[in-house]
Design brief:
By secondary structure, this protein is α/β, with parallel strands linked by helices. It is about 30% helix and about 20% strand. It has eight helices and eleven strands. The strands form four sheets. It has a five-stranded parallel sheet with strand order 2-1-6-5-7, sandwiched between helices. It has a two-stranded antiparallel sheet with strand order 3-4. It is elongated, with a radius of gyration of 22 Å.
């Protein structure tokens, strides 16, 4: 999978993406991430990519011309459906498990990281195929949001995770938070591992994990239970009903 990131701060990349599972995927070439300086696509000698907002107000707004040019040059002959442009903005769709799986199905992504007071609206209406937010808070720019998106999406690319079952066992993959996990030693400072996990009975373990996932979700994120069945599916996953997003 190839991901191009248009940014005013290309030196921020790969940053934390150079470590861990994504870092190893970058080394192997399973995932390719390249940051491009937006100023390289400016049309004047001052490499200006922002201007004052029409109607007044504080701050500066990213101009449409350099962003359009950057995305069109990077996309080349690929159609938008094969290389969609994602705009990182607080106004976008909240990044969740379903969206990350959806984005990972594309062979290419082009991400545009905003700065200042945001984008000229014509970028959103005329260029962006996706608007994505990583949460209801404000960052100084879209670079950190782009890194989060890359990390989340890359986990679904075949060959990135050493254990292909890891992604399917993560929180949210089944619509529930993940069940509690334990490892050695069996007793630590008076706290013991539940007996069922030491029993060797895989059917009991599967049911216990599902019950614990349901209880944890009910306690911490009850809104996630909408549309999730109460009985585990054939592979130990909850039987999910269709739900709209």
């Amino acid at each position: 999978m190839r991901i191009d990131i248009v940014t005013l701060f290309p030196d921020m990349f790969p940053g934390p993406l150079g470590s861990g599972v994504v870092g190893r995927a970058l080394e192997r070439g399973t995932v390719e991430v390249t940051a491009h300086n937006l100023r390289d696509y400016a049309g004047d000698r001052h490499r200006q990519v922002d201007d004052i907002p029409y109607g007044g107000g504080p701050g500066m707004v990213l101009k449409p011309e350099p962003v359009f040019k950057a995305v069109r040059v990077l996309r080349g002959d690929d159609p938008p459906a094969a290389a969609p442009c994602g705009q990182l903005t607080p106004q976008g769709r909240r990044l969740d498990h379903a969206l990350s799986v959806e984005l990972a199905a594309h062979p290419r992504l082009i991400l545009v990281a905003g700065r200042y007071e945001g984008f000229d609206e014509r970028i959103r209406t005329g260029l962006a195929d996706r608007e994505v937010s990583i949460g209801d808070y404000i960052l100084s720019g879209g670079e950190l949001a782009a890194m989060v998106l890359v990390e989340v999406v890359a986990r679904h690319v075949p060959g990135v995770l050493g254990d292909e079952d890891s992604a399917s066992d993560d929180s949210f993959s089944s619509g529930l938070l993940e069940h509690p996990q334990y490892t050695r030693p069996p007793e630590f400072e008076g706290a013991t591992v539940p007996e069922v996990l030491l029993s060797g009975n895989h059917e009991l373990i599967r049911k216990w994990r599902h019950e614990m996932a349901l209880e944890r979700t009910r306690t911490r994120r009850p809104e996630l239970l909408d549309g999730v069945g109460s009985q585990p599916g054939p592979a130990g996953k909850p039987a999910s009903k269709e739900k709209s997003r």
